[in-house]
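Continuing the series of single-chain predictions for the mutant panel. This is the parent chain; the variants come on the following pages.
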Amino acid sequence: VREADRHFVPGRGAHEARAAQYCALDREKTMRSMTDFVDATNNRVSRSIFHDEEIYRQELERLFRKCWLLIGHESQIPEIGDFFLTRMGEDQVILSRGRDGKPHAFLNTCRHKGMRVCRYDEGNTKRFYCPYHGWSYDLNGDLQGVPERQGSYPASFDRKEWGLIQVARIASFRGTIWATWNPEAPDFEDYLGDIKESLWYGLGAWDGGDGEIEVLGGVQKWNVPCNWKFVSENSGGDPLHNISHQSTDLARIGPRSGVGRRDPLGELFLTYTPNGHGLIYERIDVTQPRGHYSMSKITSEYFEDCWRRRLDRLGEKAGSPLVLGNIFPNAGFHVQQPRVLLMAHPNGPRTSQAWRMYFVDKDAPEEAKDFLRRYYVSYSGPGGMTEQDDMENWGYASEGAAVQPPQDAPFSYVAD
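Parent structure:
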């Protein structure tokens, strides 16, 4: 009898037989060592990490099932009944404000036969209703209604056991909401480690105080023909790609310094943490004026006032501001202007979905919010000037990474 035949079960479909065969394989033989792909000593990275099916499968299982993932922001669900349809890895997840006033997150799949119970990106509701067989769930994900329960289901059927599948843990940090499927994951702030303070100021009010931020408008979503890691590392591991955005600099759509350009006022430096987070800081001369928005007097005055208060509160720390970064594995942020939260969702080894959410100070003047909304659209909107550069780079780079050269040809990855 062939080894493959040992795992064939009569009556099963071909795909189920193959799945059973795969699960029976020696797991250790399917797990390749990281050293097969990354040579940290010589800064070499295998191109296969951007297209290999097995690596991608392991990423879904070992990263997206175990790490803390960004799923939304408190300002997206301010009221009881508010919901936002988000993602964790490849899975759709409902983020809702429960009847207890707290955020809840659960898989968007009915426990009966898997039908989506939410088919809107956002909104407000009293319950989540399955249109297939009528099961209904409350805002906390608990099963409430089962049509034809008497006579159609066994007497042992207990509604309490059939609620929507909840995440193992959920946490809020400076307005952002995070979740994990791993019940043994460390506390979220421990997961952040030493970058907690930097992120606290980066995701907070522009003046360095305790004020709140809010998401401005909806979520921009792009389907990108690239591996999710291209999107993710752009925020936390690649400070050298600004050459791609020369057209934005020439158009001068952003904050203008004394020379009228978007150029950094100081030196950029990159930091990494043991948990895989990458952050980029800027070392600046705090005695020099910051860039401003000359097209909006109120906006310029608002940011100038915020900068003065930030200097008063933070002192020397204001001279090394966080610019952008990535919380491992797939949450990016840009905390200078434009201020952005970014999620890099995997859709396969060579496809991904990039989500962008813009945020502003909640107490900013309405004229400033309106100006920034239009600025963000011109900067990174569907007809904008910056994000399109990135996506074209990611797509072509992902295509090139899949090329199989006649000899080993790793990438030279880190600039010393």
